[in-house]
Design goal:
With 282 residues, the chain is an alpha/beta fold. It folds into 2 domains: 178 residues, TPP-binding domain (Rossmann fold), CATH 3.40.50.1220; 81 residues, SIR2/SIRT2 'Small Domain' (2-Layer Sandwich), CATH 3.30.1600. It has 12 helices and 11 strands.
């Protein structure tokens, strides 16, 4: 690890240890290290398959207009992300879970639908864009595991779409394009972003909204700080309440706009375990 990166890793560990309420945000960049493709990167799914992107933009409308057809299509089409059942967490996922176990991270908000944070042991987890492994009622919002309903049997018996006890139509928990973020996930994420005093951002391009608004919301939270003047008098100044740390392979709009306090450039699977070790040393 380069000297500059080591210094930043130490700084991040110190900031996290001092925090009263630290949270983390994660995006596709942490899961690509587990072999899961992203969508917008240089080798992303959308760049390779324009039709897949077009279809993805139509999924929610398809569900609203023809829920039976939506489910028939989902059950007959392999996941673009590969076999998520077999996917395994990488050291970055385990490091975030370890920071939670140490009592440092209070919450993790992820854009990822792959379930790897849960597999790694993160418990106080908000899956902002839903989960591949869950189903959600479009009416009451209740969730269940994908294996709790035999979707293949329903297809064979011509009983699609699946229905909730409340009578609502069940869809995949995954949040599709043009679909509102579920109210519970949106509300809780905003609350977490507003009250945190340290935000650790890992592997997100920070261009997908409204998720990308969370660091900006945190940055708006100001507190008062007393500064002693040369005259001996004290000046009360408004300063940002939250320290925002980025761990990303490349700079993002958060870096360029000065939203983040500093960027540790590199792979999450290498940087985050270093932060854990440094935090333990401290």
């Amino acid at each position: 690890m380069e000297l500059k990166i080591r210094d930043l890793v130490k700084r991040a560990a110190e900031d996290l240890k001092k925090a009263n309420y630290a949270i983390a945000l994660s995006g596709a960049g942490i899961s690509t290290e587990s072999g899961i493709p992203d969508f917008r990167g240089p080798s992303g799914i959308w760049r390779k398959d324009l039709q897949a992107e077009k279809k993805a933009y139509q999924s929610y409308e398809k569900f609203l207009e023809d829920p039976k057809g939506y489910w028939e299509d989902r059950l007959s089409t392999p996941s673009l992300l590969g076999d998520l059942e077999e996917a395994k967490p990488n050291p970055g996922h385990y490091a975030l879970a370890e920071l939670e176990k140490m009592g440092i991270l209070k919450c993790l908000i992820t854009q990822n639908i792959d379930g790897l944070h849960e597999k790694a042991g993160s418990r106080n987890l908000i899956e902002y864009h839903g989960s591949y492994f869950k189903l959600r009622c479009s009416k009451c919002g209740s969730r269940s595991g994908i294996k709790e309903i035999d979707l293949e049997q329903l297809r064979e018996e011509e009983k699609l779409p699946p229905l909730c006890k409340c009578g609502g139509v069940i869809k995949s928990d995954i949040v599709h394009f043009k679909e509102p973020i579920p109210i519970d996930a949106a509300k809780r994420s905003q609350e977490e972003a507003w009250k945190c005093d340290v935000m650790l951002i890992c592997g997100t391009s920070a261009v997908v909204y409204p998720f990308a608004q969370l660091p900006r919301l945190a940055k708006k939270h100001m507190t008062e700080e007393e500064i002693k003047m040369e005259s001996g008098l004290y000046l009360v100044k408004q300063v940002p309440f939250t320290t925002i740390i980025e761990v990303n392979a490349e700079p993002t709009p958060l870096t360029e706009e000065g939203i983040s306090n500093y960027l540790i450039q590199g792979k999450a699977g290498e940087i985050l375990p270093g932060i854990v070790q440094e935090a333990k040393r401290l």
